[in-house]
Amino acid sequence: MQAPLPFCTYLLLMLSCFVCVLPTNGFFVINCVIKGSLKYPANLKALCNKRELCVIPHNIPDQTRVLDLSYNHLMSIKKKDLIYFTKLTHLNVSHNWIKDIKEGAFRSLTALQELNLAHNNLHIISGGSFQNLFNLTVLRLDENQITNISASAFDPLISLVMVNLSGNHLAHIHEVQPLFQLLNIQELHIGRNGFSSFQTPQVSNTSLKLRVLDLSWNPLRVFRITADVFPHLESLGLAFSNESMTWDVQDASYLRNVSTLNLTGIEMNEEIKSVLQTFNTSLTNLSLYRLKEKTLIKTACLINPLRTLHVQSSRLASISAKELTGCTDLVTLDLSENSLRNITNLAFGFMTNLKRLSLSRNKLDSVPPAIWNLSSLEVLDLSYNSIYNLTCSDFNSLAQLQTLYLSRNPLYSVKPFQNLTNLKTLIISSSRLISVTNCFRACLQKLEFLDLTQNKLNYIHKEDFGDLKSLKHLLLNDNQITTIDKGAFEGLQKLTVLNLQSNKITQSSLKASVFSGLTNLKYLLLNNNYLSYSDQSNLVKPPFRYLKSLETLAIHSQGHKGMLNFPSNFLEGLTSLQVLTAGNLNLNFLYPNTFSHSPRLLSLDLSRNELTTVSQELFTPLKRLNRLHMFSTGLQSMDFLMQANLTEIQYLQISKNELAVINETFIASFTNLTYIDLQGNPFSCDCSNALFVDWAIRNNVTQVVNADQLTCNYPSKLRGNKLMELDFESCTVDKGFFCFISTTVFILLIMFSSILYHFLKWQVVYAYYRLLAFLYKSNQQRKTQSSGYQYDAFISYNTHDELWVMSELLPHVEGEQGWKLCLHHRDFQPGKPIIDNIVDGINRSRKTICVISRHYLESEWCSREIQVASFRLFDEKKDVLILVFLENIPPHQLSPYYRMRKLIKKRTYISWPKPGEDTRVFWEKLRMALEAKESSKEENPILSGISGT
Ligand SMILES: *[C@@H]1O[C@H](CO)[C@@H](O)[C@H](O)[C@H]1NC(C)=O
Ligand SMILES: *[C@@H]1O[C@H](CO)[C@@H](O)[C@H](O)[C@H]1NC(C)=O
Ligand SMILES: *[C@@H]1O[C@H](CO)[C@@H](O)[C@H](O)[C@H]1NC(C)=O
Ligand SMILES: *[C@@H]1O[C@H](CO)[C@@H](O)[C@H](O)[C@H]1NC(C)=O
Ligand SMILES: *[C@@H]1O[C@H](CO)[C@@H](O)[C@H](O)[C@H]1NC(C)=O
């Protein structure tokens, strides 16, 4: 037993639990969703974004690693706001209204690695802003109003690798000069400010590690480098620089490692040539979006090492060899978002190394013959053009092509794709194809991914896809498919994903033969079709019976009327099924053996079906289930889930049901639960939910999502109130109060009884028991009366006798005889007051077995247990006590234990045999005692004991 606590200590403890609730230990944080478990805080995330918060919520667990406060209305960060987050590694406070950060506001965040302050209203960065952020590697301050930065502000940031200050109002480069001095700085974004000159004397010392410098959108008039300060600079951004910029790099070797240059929107004329010349030996990647002057392409191609050229959004209407001669070494050419209509046949003629060509978002009406010579091409993007027809020879020479994008063209017919023997990915979505018969014959032996979404296909013929031996993904969603031929996918042995959602497939075209041959299919999506069944009876040929490997099946949302009935063997054959989404099907009933075909199910979604009642048998086969989504299913009780004993459940989405009470059995049943969503249930705001509220606030395993949003529906005067804000103190204080009264009365009575003993001996004792019984009863009425018993017997024993209980009693009575026992160390709910546990234990048990030894008689707690049991005897008029004597205790030794003496006088009791004697008779007696019904008439030891003497 527990070490005996003085009763008032216990009373105090019990009261204090409710007075000083400490939600910081729990999962319940108003306005935040906590991801992860408090037990393993290394992944703990607090997501408090988009909540219109004006202050940082308190109660966020101290152990949080990632804190997202973006998109709120925070105005400032105060000194104490973040003081406890010593483990925080990522803090996002972007998109707020923060005007000011108090000095030292981040001083506790020594573990912080990323700080995002973008899109706020900061004007000034003062000296102590980033105090102690020694581990910070990424700092975002873009899109603020910063005009001033204190010279010492960045000093603590010794680990800083990347800083973004774009989109501010800085005018002088010396404001950011300290950033260039940071030991580890690699990336510096200072675009969209007011810098009018960038000159090395302003930057001074060498930035040894700087790799990326972005100066785009500044009104730079001078760019002057007079010393070797950026020896490792790789990428330089000068997009949208001033058209009259003076470019003065005194020695081209100062920028010898710059391989990427962004000259988007450049408006310089002759000057640009000297800019490009600077990079003659290093530049491999050049961006010239929004190019004004086509001839610049030719100049760019003079740069020897150049391999990647972006000329997007430049309104080019045509391109020819004139511009592209000299670009023979290009590997990537991006001409997307132009107005190309005409490409002369020889435009790409000499690009024998070209691997990636994008002609996306142009005005081509056919595949340009210019590509015919590109025999090294691997990726070709022709999406978003106006191509109507493909001819057989369009891609003839592209034997190396691996990826072809043709989506968003008004294609209505496709000729067989020839010669594309290496093609792996083909995307023809959002076109007007009505049929693909004969398109994919013979040569596409390596095709793995075929996307035909959003076309007008209505009939899938046998052999449409049969030759695609390597195909793994086939996307046919968002078409008009009504019919699929028998064996249409035969031959696709490697197919793992088949997407048929949003078509017009009906139950009559969903035949098992359609899926024959798909031995490796893992994902089958059939949502938003027209499946509907008139009854639940077994299908003669269940549709999925060949899909032995299928892991995910999605069939939610069928037709206008819904699926209506779920044939009981619908899932037959799906022995590997792990995920089933079957929401919104207008189902009212599920046949109890529906899921017996899919015992490996891990995740099940039945949301938005008006199921109301669910049989326990339905869930019994699903022993592995760990995610269950049943929102809006009209559930009134979760008993079916408890009875099915699904202990693996971790994620439970049961919002918008008719659940009024979450009782302690429910809480105790799902010990692995990490997430439960109960929003939108009509909670009953009385003591029946007191335990749930306490648990929601303080347990550290299960997160009750948005617990603060749960509202009361009953009693009507509390309707609409927040469940978590209610005062449940009365539920427990009453109990404490009654305990207090009863103890006081008890003590007083003992005092008085000793005085009055001689005068009114039995009347006093009788009154004492009447009083206790009365108090106990009124206390009891406050609790929810559970109907049946959970246990056969509650065992009351002393710690010294634990060995006997564990090694003798338990194996015999629970093991052999099959009774269910309640043992305090095993069955008591942690965190619940001891006395409540005892009372509960006794009341949930049919009998109470007292294991009596000398130690037992001496222990206070045990006598309290007998007390409770005898109250029950007295109160409910039920005989529940079984006395087991472990040792022979002579009557004179029992005399101090008045009640015990009285009990054994009138009752039969069972004695444990002496060592060496046969124990079988003992166990038999015990079994009979346990079998006996609680008798109310005969012996009532307390009453008879009192009246008897
Ligand atoms: C800072 O980073 C280093 C290296 O990653 C790590 O060892 C140290 O524990 C971090 N400091 C804190 C306070 O987390
Ligand atoms: C070049 O700079 C422009 C403007 O800042 C930007 O939109 C574009 O994405 C950059 N291009 C590359 C390749 O980084
Ligand atoms: C494109 O070619 C057509 C003839 O094929 C010609 O009429 C048209 O002028 C050309 N457009 C341009 C911009 O060169
Ligand atoms: C596409 O091909 C069809 C017949 O194959 C032909 O009638 C039509 O004119 C062609 N359209 C274009 C734009 O070439
Ligand atoms: C393309 O394939 C056809 C036969 O399918 C063949 O005659 C032709 O030579 C091939 N073209 C090229 C360029 O390989």
Automatic annotation (TrEMBL):
Keywords: Glycoprotein, Immunity, Inflammatory response, Innate immunity, Leucine-rich repeat, Membrane, Receptor, Repeat, Signal, Transmembrane, Transmembrane helix. It is found in: Membrane. PROSITE patterns: LRR, TIR. Gene3D superfamilies: Ribonuclease Inhibitor (3.80.10.10), Toll/interleukin-1 receptor homology (TIR) domain (3.40.50.10140). It is a single-pass type I membrane protein. The chain crosses the membrane at residues 740-760. Residues 1-23 form the signal peptide. It comes from the Eukaryota. Belongs to the Toll-like receptor family. This is TIR domain-containing protein. It comes from Pygocentrus nattereri.
